[in-house]
Amino acid sequence: MRAALAASPSDAPVVPRSSSGYSGTPLWTKLGAKPERTLLVVGAPASFEAQLATLPEGVVLANRAGAAFDLGLCFCASRRELERRWSKLVPKLASGGALWIAWPKQVSGVATDLNGDEVRAFGLEQGLVDTKVCAIDATWSGLRFQRRRS
What we know:
23% of the residues lie in helices and 29% in strands. It is of the alpha/beta class. It has one domain: Vaccinia Virus protein VP39 (Rossmann fold, 3-Layer(aba) Sandwich), CATH 3.40.50. Strands 2-1-3-4-6-5 form a six-stranded mixed β-sheet. α3 links the parallel β1 (38-42) and β2 (60-62).
């Protein structure tokens, strides 16, 4: 046993290079981005632009909620941003659509007064339901909201 513990492995472990986060699933698959659907991205940090280059072909990208959208990804670093952006985005959320709210992880070093529990409580108070959570990247977590089914 001591000999086994003292011996070091001959090869370093193979770590795959991927932008898919912890699960191995590509971000856009986790979020539900599909061809012929409009993806609205609001408040994204500059570091997120590289992720946008990996969008599936056929996804229509928008950065303003001028019309209805099928899928939204809204980055909010504060409760104030969440409230302000929510009031503008939810009325334009298409029937059957989803709005992801992203907030900084506590370990990210980004100043925030939000966490997952607060984002969930806010969305529920506003009449939507949370249906999924995911890691957006090393800095941001996301929670998906949809309208309640009748």
